[in-house]
Structures
1.
Amino acid sequence: MSEACEERGLAPDDPDLYARLLTLPVDLRPTLFVVVDTEEEFDWAAPFSRTNTSVRSIRRLGRLQRLFERFGVVPTYAIDYPVASQPDGYLPIKEFADAGACAIAAHLHPWVNPPFAEEVTPRNSYGCNLPPVLERDKIQRLLDEIEAHIGVRPKGYKAGRYGFGRSTVVALPLLGIDVDLSISPHMDYGADGGPSFVSFSVRPFFFGADSRLLELPCTAGYAGVAGGVGPRLHDLASRSSLSRLHLVGLLARARVVNKVRLSPEGHPAHELRQLTLVLAASGVRTFSLTLHSSSLEPGHTPYARTMREVEELMTRIERYLDFFLGELDGVSSTPDDFRAWVELQRLVVGDSRMTGACS
């Protein structure tokens, strides 16, 4: 077995990764990508199992799709193997794709994605912890399945559980992937062997000396009245010696500082709005709104345990789109279209050293 993701030293200033920020026009309107992790239902609190492959919740995508279409948003469905291999999963999405109403990316859940050569463990649920050849073979099988049943060869990729590492950087271009959506800035998944992205920025950048792999990170950051000292204050409150005092929750409820992911799952509308305004004011121009398809049906995720919570989630999505495309005067795009636009504009990558500043 290869080393755990975090032990590989994945960091933006790693000379082997050659990560360089993309220079975007200062007058670029705020641009929103909507990425739906489109996957099977399973109990998030239970051990991982190869037998949890039901995709019945995919039938709920129609309502979400209609909401997106009302705002002129083309979502990206990042599809994993159970969805790509079962008619209940791929047929509804193929209908959207055939109509040009969505984009398709690949989403790897290793424990339910052949070939099955590894033990099912929390550590192995991160694709970057698998032997590099096995990780690549799983992604290859996933891409083949998506192409066979939906008729699209994905050019984008999002690692399940954010299991992205050095081996993934090498594998994706070899498999024809030129956009990655896996990096989760400010987040650390090391508790059960996953990667840490605490030093990554939310701004787009390229991996590799040849700048072939464009990274469009998930959007996360700090909001609250603490301003620029927020990240340091949040880090201090998160330390194990202070955890029993529940300072992180107290600071968030007091709106002093709160670490927020741009997702309607677990975050109220005002937090999504505030995070976006903070990042936009700092010069960030690309934003990724993310959620799980299984949250559209009650009982599958901690974010939507009841039908009421599903309705609240849908309302948050609607309010955020109204804010972003209205008040903020933003536009929507897909990762694939944005990558093509970057090529067309011949935008350059800078020599900026990437750090984990608040943006």
2.
Amino acid sequence: MAESERRKAKNEYKTFAIHNKQADIDLVSHEYLMDNPAQTGMAGDVLIGDDIIEIITNSIENYYLIYSAI
């Protein structure tokens, strides 16, 4: 990401939330991945602006999905 894009993103996205479409960054869906103990974690979709980012993490805390997307 170019420096100008980073500055633009930093200025545009100020709030994040879970299931709150009013926020700049929103965790729109998530599911726990508990079938395999070696791969326990979460998968989810994070909306940033007009883009959906699909994230899989080994954490079971949903806010880590937002942090990973950012």
3.
Amino acid sequence: MKVAIIGSDGQLGTDLVKIFQQKGEEVFPLTHAEIEVVDYDSCQKSLDLLKPEVVINTAAFHQVDECEKYPEKAFAVNTQGAFNVGGVCRELGARCVFISTDYVFSGLKGGSYTERQAADPVNIYGVSKLAGEIWVLGISEHNLVVRTCGLFGEKVSKKGWNFVEKIIRLAKEKGTLKVVDDQFVSPTATFYLAEKIHQLVGGKAAGIFHVTSEGHCSWYQFTKKILELTGVPCDLHPVASAEFPSPAKRPDFSVLESERLQKEGYGLLPDWQEALAEYLIRQDYQLKK
């Protein structure tokens, strides 16, 4: 396959490039300097030159609180960007893969969400990503939306850290931490996610797929496991999210259930604890038993 990966220098993009190349695909990595998703002409010029069969769009404005402050930018990148990339894909006869989020759900259901359930976002980030999904799926029935959450990978984010590395650093610096215990997530390693996306693309999967680690935990439970595995000493305290007020409302329980992966024979990702341990080993941490 000829595959263009937009956002190739991000956490997920880096692993997508690596995995697709390892699988023998012809990969065209595209960074922000090479394609501007909010500009249709830029998308058309960049992609028309490459003529890929598949375009994976990982570009996103995903700083949730910043999206509340700058909604125009959120919709420009997450919605208009999705439309632009999807539109050019239609012109080229290419399949478009759009990476989305658990934040398209409110978290008020009281349980996990399957692909069949209606989205009901509670913040600008979630609304803008949902609108992007609608565009991508409306442009072609062959397009694919992958919803995921809690990403951590070997390439740190543009913020300069991922959650795992941030916790280890803060624990070492401060010796005490307060972490919310009433918001739940399925921490997902980008290398496992990238492998599953390759499998989905190769299988010509279409529509919406939920792809996260199996199981779930609160951010406090995730932090506790990180510190247990690395042996970093820290006085850790669970707190309510109300103790950390923020501009954006966040869902308390937006855990995604990978119903289609299982039903359609693609198989599930490993448990989040296994994914975390594998990540730490890859980062040369000596795990504590």
4.
Amino acid sequence: MTTDLPLGTRVVLRYRLPPGSSHPLTDVVGELVGRDPFAVRDRHGRVVRVDADRVVALKPVPPRPQSPRPQR
């Protein structure tokens, strides 16, 4: 797992959900804004905070694709 990524990097963070959840893992994609705990701001502006012991993977991802402009 890469933990030396600079804050502001666009990442995917995969983490374990609590026991009894509908599935064992989930992901969040967005801007890395913290490391203790890990924090990622998603495209809606929500910040997901995850303790290091629940993190399975943290990887950089390319910039979010731009939506095409409507034609006039």
